[in-house]
Amino acid sequence: MRCPFCRHPDCRVIDSREVDDGQATRRRRSCVECGRRFTTVEEAVLAVVKRSGVTEPFSREKVVRGVRRACQGRPVDEDALQLLAHRVEEAVRARGTAEIPSHEVGLAILGPLRELDEVAYLRFASVYRSFSSIEDFEKEIADLRRPAAGEAAEPRSGRSTG
Ligand SMILES: [Zn+2]
After folding, report:
1. Which UniProt keywords apply (predicted)?
2. How many whole angstroms from 90 Cα to the centroid of ligand 1?
3. Residues, beta carbon < 5 Å, ion ligand 1
4. Which tens digit of pLDDT belongs to each residue from 115-160?
5. What is the rounded CA–CA span in Å between residue 146 and residue 155?
6. Nearest alpha-carbon partner for 88 in 60, 119, 49, 47
7. What is the distance in A from the centroid of ligand 1 to the CA of 38?
8. What are the residue boundaries of the structural domains of the chain, listed by start?
9. Helix, strand or coil for residue 99?
10. Strands of the sheet with 37-43, listed across from one edge
11. Phi then psi dihedrals of residue 32, to 5 deg
12. pLDDT tens-place string over residues 74-89
C-alpha cells in the first residue's frame, strides 16, 4: 500500500479493527517515510451475476432503489428501506460464496419485504416472479393470509437500534 501523501511504498499498520459487524477491516496506517497517517478499509467483494452473465458488485443502494419503487405510496420510511437492504446483504453474504446470481438477491428481498409491507411485497413479487394472471395474485394473497408456520411473535416494539 503506497502512502497517499508521498507515494512511498512502505507503511506500518498501527491499528486494525473489524467494522460493519466484522464484514470489513479498517486499518490505521502510518507511512514509514513521511510519518503521515491514513486509513484503509478492506472487505470481501461480493459479486452479483446478472442473467446476461455480467457481474457487478453487490450494492445495498441498488436493493433500496428496487424496493423503494415497490413501496411508492406505502407507509415505509427510508430507515426501514436501509434496514431491509442491510438484512438482504447479511443474507446473501451468509451464503459464504463470492458470487451470487441476481435472482437470488431478489429472493432474499422477498422475505423481509413481506414482513415490512404486504402491498409492496405483492408489487415486487409480481414483477420479480413475472405474474401473468390474476390467479398468480390470488395464489400469492392466499399465501399471505395463511399464517406462517411456527412464526414467533412480531418484534414490534421494545427494541432500540442505533
Ligand atoms: Zn508518506
Report:
1. ATP-binding, DNA-binding, Metal-binding, Nucleotide-binding, Repressor, Transcription, Transcription regulation, Zinc, Zinc-finger
2. 36
3. 3, 5-6, 8, 31, 33-34
4. 999 999 999 999 888 888 899 989 999 988 887 654 544 444 444 4
5. 19
6. 60
7. 9
8. 11-43, 47-145
9. strand
10. 11-19, 24-31, 37-43
11. -75, -15
12. 999 999 999 999 999 9
